[in-house]
Amino acid sequence: MTAKQQILIVGGGIMGVTAALELRRRSHEVTLIDPGPLPHPEASSTDISKMIRMDYGSDELYMDWMEEAFPRWHEWNELWGEELYHEDGFVIMTREEMRSGEFEYDSFRKLQQRGHQPERLDSQALAARFPAWNAALYVDGYYNARAGWAESGRVLTRLIDAARAAGVRLREGVAMRELLLDDARVRGVVLSDGAALRADAVIVAAGAWTPVLLPHLAEVMWVVGQPVMHFRPAEPALFALPNFTGFAADISNTGWYGFPLHQGVVKIANHGEGQRLDPRGTKEVQAGEEARFREFLRETFPALADAPCVQQRLCLYCDTWDGHFWVDWDREIPGLLVATGGSGHAFKFAPVLGELIADVLEGRENRFAARFAWRERGELGKEDARFWEG
User: Fold this and answer.
1) Alpha carbon 251 to chain centroid distance?
2) Beta bridge partner(s), residue 337
3) What is the tens place of the pLDDT at every residue in 103-118?
4) pTM higher than 0.70
5) Domain 6-45+153-219+323-372 CATH superfamily
């Protein structure tokens, strides 16, 4: 599909807006609808930070794709005239010696095999370089300089502004009620007020709202809320560069990760079982979560354990059954392309996501597309720590 088309995109998160930009660059007519405001305050991308890293255990495809994304992050910094991607490095530590077959060691070895230079850290090196850590508890790990974090909400704002400037028709305050079908083919969407918007193809890139809008996908993707908290440290310098970077703390076993000081706070998050929920309902952090966070801080970053918690939120994941993104034409509904299933780790690929989605829509070859194609649900295994970003 390479002829110029009228494309309607449902959802203004990171997948929707990057797809809109790329499709407009390819001269398609693009309309993007979102209940708004944009950036949507409940979208997973709308936060102060997201991790940008290529550490994916033994999964080389994601590392390969991130190697393409990193230069684009720097290009965006130059284009925007401000540093919204901060390549400050990333620390991954374990409470026992790293072992082959586990996320941390496999990430370390894969980085080396692909020509990167991660620095192995033991307790002594950790204490000397990053003094906020309880180094006695963390005995092995590494520092990867080719990593960092992005000011995700501000990045999304920049991309939305760029889409508007490129001629994408942005319609905020507009929600999809259902697909507009004609002879079993999608011809657009019906809005919540009953009005119809027609298009040659529809892309649903609605993140956590996708299983609600497309209930036939509820068996392969669902919504999970993962807790995030912001703490204001009494000793800010201890949690700022060069004393502190983005980190993962025995994440294969615990799910804990976080970010350096930004806007006066240290963001701590947990990628674990989370809360299954309906995005149309309440989205509150469960009672007892703050106590669990503080227990982790007492063990790992004692100087942060009693710091005021100034914000709590649930980061809404659209989890697919296998943790991989879902970017393909719907097998049941012609004319509908689904671009969703970020599973907590899509944002870091923002500079290359739009190209993937546009290539799938146009039927062009893309060497990464097969991983994210339509697929049958398999057996669920143990949750993998590679799928997280903040």
Assistant:
1) 17
2) 203, 329
3) 999 999 999 999 999 9
4) yes
5) FAD/NAD(P)-binding domain (3.50.50.60)
